[in-house]
Amino acid sequence: MTLTDRLQQTLDSKAYALTRASEAAGDLAINLLEAAAIFAVTLWAARLAARLVRRGMSRLPQTRDDATLQSFGGSLARYAVIIFGLMAVLHRLGVETTSVITVLGAASLAVGLALQGALSNVAAGVMILIFRPYRVGDYVTIAGKSGTVTKLDLFNTELSDVDGLKIVAPNAKGFSDVVVNYTDISKRRMELNFQVRYEDDLQAALDVLETACAQEPRLLCDPAPWVNVTELGPSGITVTLRAWTALDVYWDVRFGLLKSVRLALNARGLRHAYPTQINAEPNRDKPL
Hints:
- By secondary structure, the chain is of the alpha+beta class.
- Helices cover 53% and strands 18% of the residues.
- The longest helix has 57 residues, at 3-59.
């Protein structure tokens, strides 16, 4: 073989390699574009599926008034569509999905340990749906944070506090921790404490509290309001009013009683007891 033939063969092989590389790059670019398109469609379909599931559940008689179940069902549909979409993306990129499933199955223990926090939140979300310690729209305290439940999905519970701040609490906190539900009741008791001075008329202070209860029609008669002395403090006497009222007017009644009782005490000449400090006289017989 002459030198010219060898050069020609080398050039042909390089041209072939370049052709194959360009074809492979083109195929890869096409696959990446198709995978990106599938992923974009998946995200759109996930939002659509969540919206359709919530809309469908809102029309069913069994779940029409259950915003908690509607939110959870929409979240479940969304994540299910995303998982199927990711499998389609992997398949488009040439990854055998069966191999991925086999690997995930073999590594299930490691994945479970690594994602135990997230999985526990999913399990807690299911248990919350079953036992219903709270629902969407309830005012609750979870992990020391108070607010109205606005959303419940697979992993988190979202609250909105009185200042409009968004609070996100893991579902595990809402199931395993102490939860205070202020909405899932029909009536609530209030306790109001007032301090009067020792030199004031104690019976007059108790009469003021009883009169305030009698003049407030939104207080419940059963259980009846309770007024009594609860503490003899270092600077004054504590008189306490305990009464029950309906949940929807609780705060209005509480604040109204605070105002009316304070004004009535002042009108009777009963002043608030302030802390006093007694300075002992120095012992003049003791040498310095």
